[in-house]
Amino acid sequence: MRRRSLSSALPWLASALLAACTGSAPPAREASPASIPNAPPPPAAPTLPPGVLAEGAGAQGVVRVEERDGLRLLTIDGVVQAAVPAGRRDIVASPDPLVTLVRAARPNARTVLVIGLGSGRTAAALAAAGLEVEVAELEPAVIDFARRFFGYQGHAIASDGLD
Question: What is the residue range of the signal peptide feature (predicted)?
Fold first, then answer.
């Protein structure tokens, strides 16, 4: 009986673990005839504080996307890594000074390595300027949040460069 109950819960557990890794909500658990009577329900997803759109644990601290004072912020342990006007999805809305710097320092450059993605604005601006861009970011959550909340569509890898 116990083995049967555990095996019926395994698909839900696998879905919940996958959801936890991807940051999405776990699927609703449905009762089945093989359920253990009086089993506690799965824990509810944590409620985020007001203004916090997303949160994830990272090697450097808590990675958050917040909206306040008309800005969408990407923070790591409360330190702002990127800030853009809230609601803006056009990631390359204005010239990025780093594009000018790269063009001045290396006029014939074809590729560029960006260390640290942030909102993805600089990487996107460099790509829009015709450069092939590689991005290395320590925190996988930053890459996920740059795509979901800041409109970044380019390539990025989660790496510390020591692999």
Answer: 1-19
